[in-house]
């Protein structure tokens, strides 16, 4: 929005309206990039604190803390009178993102039955896409409000923050979190409430067994360095590295910038962002109904291939038609919007939601919090790098930047095909044995050390029921 740029990023405002300014460089400004990326820098730090807080106090309080960060950050941004105040507000929003992304997928994975876990986790992603769409619609209408439109736009984030805060008092804590903190009776009560039946003894005993085993681990971050925990750690990190280097946040953060680069007016650019946001929501529904049927790997591979074609096509069209100072024809601009929608469409039912689903379910319980932190932190770090660097990269690489992301998409496809196990339908607490332990490459990593033989579950249960006393002399 021009009013926003004029107040906080005056150099960008001047370049944007300079008649002969290079199309690819008109938004190149490190402070504008910092406004976008600072949120994710804060999220990295917050996700580390949230991983410890989440384990010690539970998933529900972590969501409450996240909502408070969101609320205060939105108020600061709406009231901002200078760039420093604006950035502080973004940092607080980032703390909310880091805390929420740590707690919510874990919460969903731990309350969901195995056969519905993927679909329920994708509901989390779908509601994020709805939030993005609503934000784009709000931006479109507030852009017509002179001088103060941007304040309504940024301050509007307080509304979902309040909803999240109130909602977090209504939900129950996960049985796993309650049991691992020694609250077995409350855990049993919560499990009965979540399942809607009284006969949950078998599942309850399995959770108790898993949590007791996990609680014997005093330093979960150190446990991640053990050979058998490295496969899920490496895979979670790579999943979120590749997710961000697919180029999705280039589109989601800077869609109006891309459209204005091609010569769209301000309102038309925001309307185009609404269109791509609508595609994002609708296509996420596909993932909800297919992830637990088709499986994770098939959707990841197919999605990456469609994104690869879309990125190459966007790069080719812009390389041919968009020069330094011209405007592309209306038909060419519409074609690029269609290709961007194709890219968003394929991401929204594949790497977007499934990246979070797989990362939340592949770790054993004793390292689930700490392992998932590395997934969240990787996501936030890569998002920060992309957000901070993209406008400068666009200025120097021009249309070739889309081929840069296409190269990563090719690597993603090969990695999923060869090194990521399928996790569809596997109970979350059996993932190490049934997914990693049977994978052609990772199975040798998952073997227990010599002399450390894992006891059959039936024997463990018998031992737990029998009190063994020391022999009398």
TrEMBL record:
SUPFAM superfamilies: MFS general substrate transporter (SSF103473). Its main location: membrane. Keywords: Membrane, Sugar transport, Symport, Transmembrane, Transmembrane helix, Transport. The keyword Membrane applies. InterPro entries: MFS_dom, MFS_STP/MST-like_plant, MFS_sugar_transport-like, MFS_trans_sf, STP/PLT_plant, Sugar/inositol_transpt, Sugar_transporter_CS. GO terms for molecular function: monosaccharide transmembrane transporter activity; symporter activity. The keyword Transmembrane applies. Pfam families: Sugar_tr. It is found in: Membrane. It is a multi-pass membrane protein. The chain crosses the membrane at residues 31-53, 65-85, 120-141, 153-172, 233-255, 267-288, 300-322, 334-359, 371-394, 400-420. Residues 1-424 form the Major facilitator superfamily (MFS) profile domain. One of its GO terms (cellular component) is membrane. It comes from the Eukaryota. NCBIfam families: SP (TIGR00879). Belongs to the major facilitator superfamily. Sugar transporter (TC 2.A.1.1) family. This is Sugar/inositol transporter. It comes from Corchorus olitorius. The lineage of its organism: Eukaryota, Viridiplantae, Streptophyta, Embryophyta, Tracheophyta.
């Amino acid at each position: 929005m021009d009013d926003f740029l004029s107040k906080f990023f005056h150099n960008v405002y001047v370049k944007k309206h300079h008649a002969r300014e290079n199309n690819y460089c008109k938004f190149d400004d490190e402070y504008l990039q910092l406004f976008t990326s600072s949120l994710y820098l804060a999220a990295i730090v917050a996700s580390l604190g949230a991983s410890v807080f989440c384990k010690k106090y539970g998933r529900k309080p972590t969501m409450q803390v996240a909502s408070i960060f969101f609320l205060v950050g939105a108020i600061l941004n709406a009231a901002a009178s200078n760039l420093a105040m604006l950035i502080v507000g973004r940092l607080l929003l980032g703390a909310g993102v880091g805390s929420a992304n740590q707690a919510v997928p874990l919460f969903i994975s731990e309350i969901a039955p195995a056969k519905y876990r993927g679909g329920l986790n994708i509901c989390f992603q779908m509601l994020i896409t709805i939030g993005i769409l609503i934000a784009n619609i709000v931006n479109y209408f507030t852009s017509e409000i002179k001088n103060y439109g941007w304040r309504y736009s940024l301050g509007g984030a307080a509304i979902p923050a309040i909803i999240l805060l109130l909602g977090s008092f209504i939900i129950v804590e996960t049985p796993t979190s309650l049991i691992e903190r020694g609250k077995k009776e409350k855990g049993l009560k919560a499990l009965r409430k979540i399942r809607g039946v009284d006969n949950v003894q078998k599942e309850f005993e399995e959770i108790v067994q898993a949590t007791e085993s996990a609680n014997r681990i005093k330093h979960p971050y150190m446990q991640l360095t053990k050979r058998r925990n490295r496969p899920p750690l490496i895979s979670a990190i790579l999943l979120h590295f590749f997710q961000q280097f697919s180029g999705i946040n280039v589109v989601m953060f800077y869609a109006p910038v891309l459209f204005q680069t091609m010569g769209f007016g301000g309102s038309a650019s925001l309307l185009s962002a609404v269109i791509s946001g609508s595609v994002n929501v609708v296509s996420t529904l596909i993932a909800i109904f297919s992830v637990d049927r088709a499986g994770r790997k098939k959707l990841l591979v197919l999605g990456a291939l469609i994104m690869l074609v879309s990125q190459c096509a966007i790069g080719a069209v812009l390389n041919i038609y968009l020069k330094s100072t011209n405007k592309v024809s209306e038909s060419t601009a519409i074609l690029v919007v269609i290709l961007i929608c194709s890219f968003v469409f394929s991401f929204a039912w594949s790497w977007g939601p499934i990246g979070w689903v797989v990362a939340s379910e592949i770790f054993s319980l004793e390292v689930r919090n700490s392992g998932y932190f590395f997934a969240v932190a990787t996501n936030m770090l890569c998002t920060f790098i992309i957000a901070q660097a993209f406008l400068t990269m666009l200025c120097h690489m021009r249309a070739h930047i889309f081929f840069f992301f296409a190269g990563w998409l090719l690597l993603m496809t090969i990695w999923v095909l060869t090194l990521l196990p399928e996790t569809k339908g596997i109970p979350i607490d059996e993932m190490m044995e049934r997914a990693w332990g049977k994978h052609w490459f990772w199975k040798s990593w998952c073997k227990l050390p010599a002399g450390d033989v894992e006891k059959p579950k039936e024997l463990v249960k018998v031992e737990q029921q029998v009190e063994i006393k020391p022999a009398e002399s």
